[in-house]
Amino acid sequence: MNSAELMGTRPVPAPTIDWLEKADVMKALGVREHVLNELIADGLFPEGVTFGKRELRWQWEDVAYFLLHQKVASRLKVSATEAEPEANTRRPKQS
């Protein structure tokens, strides 16, 4: 029995291609072109790599990481106030 079987996990097969075209990325994310462009402009999604003069491509790992991050982030219940203590709760430095 290998370690994956012991842990109850299974490997995820990689796509047969390393680079995804913009249409493939939009389909995988379930968004339209303007939404993908906004995600890139806001720094929430990686910029594509230029192939030739105008072709943008993304590594499938980047797309998979983004989707996984979105899924995990939606499950987190920590609010911003719980993540960072308020300024008035800190003790003043003692001299």
Write the layout of secondary structure elements.
Blueprint: H1 3-7, E1 19-21, H2 22-29, H3 33-41, E2 49-51, E3 55-59, H4 60-75, H5 80-83
Antiparallel strand pairs: 1-3, 2-3
Throw out a few tags for this protein:
95 residues, three-stranded antiparallel β-sheet, 5 helices, 44% helix
In terms of structural class, how would the helical and strand content be classed? alpha+beta
Residue windows where pLDDT falls under 50 for at least 5 positions: none
Q: Encode the helix/strand succession as letters.
A: HEHHEEHH
What percent strand? 5-15%
Major β-sheet strand ordering? 1-3-2
Helix count from the secondary structure assignment: 5
What distance lies between the first and last C-alpha atoms, to the nearest angstrom?
A: 60 Å
The count of β-strands is 3
Most strands sheet: 3 strands, antiparallel
- Tell me, rounded to a whole number, the average pLDDT: 79
DSSP helix fraction: 40-55%
User: What is the alpha-carbon Rg in Å?
Assistant: 20 Å
Q: How would the global form be characterised?
A: globular
